[in-house]
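QA checklist item 7 of 12: single-chain prediction sanity check.
[x] sequence parsed
[x] length recorded as 101
[x] structure emitted
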Amino acid sequence: MPRTGAELTLLFERDSELPADRSSLLRLDAPDAGMAVVADPFAADATVCWCNGVSAGAIREAASAAEPTVACVKAATRAGTGCGGCVGRITELLAREVVPA
């Protein structure tokens, strides 16, 4: 249950409280969990990495500050280092919107 583990880790690291409905943590690993329908999945505030709560804007910033590769984005933001399910979206975002210098 990688997403549940990632969420629990984030809650612990941020010294946050558990959700009132504790069973919601168990549903994080469902195939459709957290996948809110958004008009533009690559809008700056759209979440790309649910495990680490990384937005498309944060990925763009990390890519523009360093080399625009998935490895650099992972190192700078932790996106793609949880369950790995977002690596495809990170790759697509970099290919579509980040132009190497």
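[x] summary fact logged: The mean pLDDT is 81.
[ ] second reviewer sign-off
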